[in-house]
Amino acid sequence: MSSSKIDRRDFLRVLGISGAAATLAGCGNTSIESGAELVEAFVQPEDFVVPGIGVYYASTCAQCGSGCGIMGRVREGRVLKLEGNPKSVISGGKICGLGQAAVQVHYNPDRLTKPMLREGDSLKTVSWEKAMGVLTARLGSGSSLSGEQIAFLTGEVSGHQKVLLANFLESFGSTNHVVYDALSPAVGHEASKAVYGVEQPVLQIDKARLILSFGNDFLGTGPSPVHMAAQYARFRKAPRGTLIQVEPRMTLTGANADRWYAIRPGTEGVLALGIAHSLLQHPEYAHSIPQELAAALKPYDKETVAEITGINADAIPHIASLLWEKSPSLVLSGPSAEGHVRGFSNATAIHLLNLILDNRGKTLQGQANHPFPQLSPAFGSYAALTRLNQAMSAGKCQALLIAGCNPAFTAPTFVPFASNMSKVPFKVAFTTQLDETARQCDLVLPLLSPLEDFGTHVAGYQPTGVELMIQQPLMEKLYPETKGFGDILIDLLKQRKPDAYKAFPDYYSYIKTAVLKAKPVFKSKESDDNFWEDALRNGVLDLDLPAAQIDAKVSAIKVGAPQAAETGMQYPFYFVPSVRADLRDGRHANLPWLQESPDPLTSVAWDSWVEIHPTTAAQMQIREGDVLEVQSTTGSVRAKAYLFPGIQPDTISMPLGQGHTGYGRYADGIGVNPFKILDPNFDEQTGELAMYATRVIIKKTGENAKMIKDEGPTTLQQGRKLVVTMAADQAELAKEITRVAQ
Amino acid sequence: MSLSNLIKNWSTLRVKRPYEDQYKDKDYKWAMVIDLDACTGCNACTTACYAENNLPVVGKEAFSKGQAMHWIRIERYWGEGDELPKFPDRGAQFLPMLCQQCESAPCEVVCPVGATHHTPDGLNSQVYNRCIGSRYCSANCPYKVRYFNWWQYPERAWPNPLEQQLNPDVTVRSKGVMEKCTFCVQRLVEAKNRARTEGRRVEDGEVTTACAQACPTSAITFGNLADNKSQVAKMWARQQVDLAKDKQEKSDENMRGYRIFEDLRTYPSIVYMERIRDLQA
Known about the structure:
The complex is a heterodimer.
Chain A: H1 8-15, H2 17-26, E1 55-60, E2 69-75, E3 78-84, H3 97-100, H4 102-106, E4 116-119, E5 122-125, H5 128-139, E6 150-154, H6 159-170, E7 177-179, H7 186-196, E8 202-203, E9 210-214, H8 225-235, E10 242-247, H9 252-255, E11 259-262, H10 268-279, H11 291-296, H12 302-309, H13 315-325, E12 329-333, H14 335-338, H15 343-356, E13 364-365, H16 382-393, E14 399-403, H17 407-410, H18 417-421, E15 426-431, E16 443-446, E17 455-458, E18 466-471, H19 485-496, H20 498-501, H21 507-517, H22 528-538, E19 540-543, E20 573-578, H23 592-596, E21 609-612, H24 614-619, E22 626-631, E23 636-643, E24 651-655, E25 694-704, E26 725-727
Helix pairs in contact in A: 6-19, 7-15, 10-12, 10-13, 10-15
Chain B: H1 3-8, H2 10-13, E1 30-35, H3 44-53, H4 60-64, E2 73-77, E3 93-97, H5 106-110, E4 116-118, E5 124-126, H6 136-140, E6 146-148, E7 178-180, H7 185-197, H8 210-214, E8 220-224, H9 231-238, E9 257-258, E10 270-273, E11 275-277
């Protein structure tokens, strides 16, 4: 904010009105208020800062890609707390724990406050002049790099940062923007595209009467959990919808299911086809798909499917009849079904159910075609990382710029990203805090925190119309020697293309110009100044657009003979990593609130653990707290056993996100990193990493340690009537008074 | 609670709590409803509470000793009886547990120094600078929602500049003091003061707790039970839960409202609504 040309007084005038109005109310009936007495304040406060009164400013959460609108509570110039922005269609005034913790990104004691430059084996603090000197010497106007010689590696990025990044690369004749996401949705997107013609259809959870989800954790780690949770709340009101979840390891969404099935990992597609086969027995659906496809489903009788999946044979026609009974339904595919060698075909088999059930247009729609496709995010993939890795290995990459991802931590061992980085002569990291990847770079530039910076965002998942999100600083920057990512890009672009960018003193002026250019799209009659002020005050610019149609390409669904899951004597267990809604791929492990927030399913905090089914544990004589060695073909990790009933008995699970070695005091030395024992299995259709296809052996080490967990000595209510459950047919939700809009 | 105050107000202090229509002519009685069918166990409320109420992060070692300071926590159960089912095939049983602000609070009567007592608007309050750390209250609390400061957290929980996040409206507690959920009393006080200045009562929806505000499924409803037009009062009435009864007589058995450990005659201010499961599925 301070680096921009905008006058602070002007800027705050737009936003501080509620604070000024609130002053009068805050003082009580005093002689001062009635004007009988005048007092002079000893300390003259800054303009629009009213001591003791919190003022709220709108901005956008940058903790994940959902693009939730948030409000920051600011008092005496400090941001204290984040709330949801009620004006945002995506957040609806709500916020998740991960979003709350953004203030700890901002105030993190391990934040990087000054640029760092490599000197031999270590990074040394340098001034901005020196850092920018090094950067522009390599990548400024005189740079001769081109094409594949330069690469920009980022996480999911949207809005004008994405545009500037592409423009920067273009100035080198390069399109080498590599988007990497360790938890990439690529397989799911490809399968949706093949069947529906769109990567991310809009899920109308609230309109469904039955949801059948194959490992889709829409309440925890899906593309827009806060929005989905609001929809879920409506789904659970009269007439109450039913949720059936099928997955090898219980997710947060599975924990809320009316019926939860533990399935053998990787066989989700077989079950889906078994249900499809069963559905076709109903006359209503008999002709819903082509004859050849129906014929191909013949071998998927319930006994065969039960044998392969481990699901009770009678459950299959039962699920089918529920789907028939409770229409419209919604069938979802999720990461644990897609992260396999047959992941793509699992997903298309699951989508086949939606086609048979004719859910298209009822609970599944296309995202609106909006006028800002250039601002929509590029999604990450594993393939992008391997391509970059090969280029680095071959010595083709001369300059690597990294922002918003940490491949040194998340890349599996068979992608030697960290060691290949040393073959790149110039590596630059843009970050708010040193992580494992930044520590290997030659130059590290300290960024403003998301609560100090301007920006625009367009989320990949737009539930209705499109929402252009405005991110604005909630306070002055904490450290003078930090800079916005967009500002640095503008500085670089001024070197590369001086004519095109000389009009923009900074990133703020760039996005303001860009947003004002979009004014006609929003059909606003306001003056430019008012339009921009409204955008800042509301934090969102909404455009109501009709939902798009989606296709139904049955031909994309290939059905072969039923194949059993792979087994192996040497590695007897399936290894299903779990993704925590707060830590995600480990990028949030530096936030103390999230470390101390117990995992909802196990109540474990500050640690890694190995989930094992109690019956399996009993057979192997494993007790809680026994330290196990979990070994795959690529490596092994050690962690304590946790007996967990929500898991398929031939499966063990470990949470991702822990095991950092260079990410600050709250992350380092906590738990282990299961990314490093993933086997090199790939989806046969897309070539993406099959994250859930690793097989392991577990060995007892003979050690036992106390579990770091919140739950008490029992996980049972023992008749105490703590959580009472009512059967759905008894509840009379329509008679209840509720806060949730029907 | 000074001796003179005690003697002077003996007759009002000795009343049996609660009694019917106790809050009928009062301005405020803060209460809550938590819908367990809407709660997904996501932990948004717990983190919001850390942010609002200056809860210290105690760290790995203290956490392993059960010293976490989460005023609201999500308990998770796998079974209603004594037996662990082979699979939790009806999902998990999540329970957001926080101070129930009991009308007849077991913690209040055992405090040797009157550090915890009942406020006129029906809160079970904790006066930090009276507390001597006897921890009797915690021992007597059937809900186990009182948290003791075993360490001097102000010195270690907020390394610079994390302390800048601290909410100036809320005290940072020091070693030897008991603390617990306050129903975000700082927000209530601010709203009450504002309303009083404007010569009115706090309106429904004007103030809410941090947990209710964050909750992505709106499972938590907070409000003023003394205002019979408030959402929370309407919900209590429709759910047929009477604050002053320890056994609810429901004419409509399909209403889901209940209070936890009601038979202990604590008269909690939080009504839970039963979790629902489609058992046909």
